[in-house]
Design goal:
By secondary structure, the chain is an alpha/beta fold. It is built from ten helices and 16 strands. β9, α6 and β10 form a beta-alpha-beta unit.
Length: 330
């Protein structure tokens, strides 16, 4: 597995008094001997028809906004350097935010992207549009920070599918475990391994009049036994102690959150894949249920050779021209 030498940290709000996501990113960088790039994208549109009212030109607004946010980032950069972590900071006018983050990560050759999950007022931490699109577009692993709680010997839960029942590339499980083990070792935590043993034979045979209940049950049991053997073999090869192996007889949408709560996971490491024939990362109902139900941090790993999904050139400032005034209805 490629070593993590550069981490891009997407700073959602440089003006925030507390930056728990940045603090956790700095800790990861320090333990891995990596450098951090703190990045903020200004994506707020500028309305031309408001310029005469403010008395500020677009060029002046652009310079002032960049300078103000850069000053805030510089304070965070100084904090990282004080802790012995090589750090730099950059602010760009660019949109949409997820594309800006990926562009910067590719530009600085980051090995990992860390972003803070958006917070909902009533439901706690929620996966919002920017979070989902970042997971879809980023070619490198993305660590979504969903918890403000600092890590103390964290428990890392890696969710794998050695039977590939859910169409995961064969090498992805190895990457998931490698990334999870890297974090667990660096932060002096422990790595747990889980598999949702939910044989796909059920979905393929339901409704087939040629398959009776006895045959279905036999197929289900045989597939479960095979999945268990494959999971145990994979876990043994990865050096995971039996006490930290979790085989759960339920769907991944439920199993991952259940096991995460059971072991008190601080991280969940899971994979993301593309649908066959589509050049778009599959973040569907199952993944949405898993990610929204987790209260801990989540690291999403991509298959090898995953390509970035955004253009390389920043879009710059988003300027919206004067809008026509529609007549009031009679």
């Amino acid at each position: 597995m490629k070593a993590i030498r550069k981490i891009l940290v997407a700073v959602k709000n440089p003006d925030a008094r507390r930056q728990p996501g940045v603090d956790k990113a700095i800790r990861i960088a320090k333990t891995l001997g990596a450098a951090v790039e703190l990045f903020h994208a200004i994506s707020t549109p500028v309305f031309l028809d408001l310029q005469p009212l403010t008395g500020t030109s677009i060029a002046e607004l652009k310079r002032e906004s960049l300078a103000k946010r850069q000053q805030r980032l510089d304070l965070l950069v100084a904090r990282a350097r004080k802790l012995g972590v090589p750090a730099s900071g950059a602010v760009e006018w660019d949109f949409p935010p997820h594309e800006a983050i990926v562009r910067q990560a590719v530009s600085v050759r980051a090995d990992l992207v860390i972003a803070e999950c958006h917070e909902g007022k009533r439901r706690g931490w929620l996966m919002r549009l920017t979070d989902w699109e970042l997971l879809r577009a980023s070619p490198m692993p993305v660590l979504i920070m969903k918890s403000h709680k600092p890590w103390r010997r964290p428990r890392v839960l890696a969710a794998i599918d050695p039977s590939h029942a859910h169409a995961k590339p064969s090498g992805l499980d190895t990457r998931i475990v490698a990334e999870g083990n890297l974090l667990a070792t660096a932060l002096r935590g422990s790595l747990h391994l889980m598999h949702a043993n939910y044989p796909s034979v059920i979905g393929m045979t339901l409704g087939d009049p040629g398959i009776d209940a006895v045959t279905l049950a036999a197929s289900y049991d045989a597939q479960k036994a095979q999945d268990k053997r494959e999971f145990e073999a994979f876990a043994a090869a990865a050096g995971i102690p039996r006490a930290r192996r979790h085989l759960v007889d339920r769907s991944p949408a439920d199993a991952i959150a259940v096991v995460a709560r059971k072991v008190g996971a601080d991280f969940v490491v899971m994979g993301a894949v593309s649908r066959s024939g589509l050049k778009r990362l599959f973040i569907g109902d199952t993944a949405e249920r898993v990610l929204n139900s987790l209260s801990c941090d989540v690291l999403v790993v991509k298959p090898a050779h995953f390509q970035k999904r955004v253009t390389g050139k920043p879009r710059g400032m988003r300027v919206i021209g004067p809008q026509p005034i529609l007549p009031l209805p009679a």
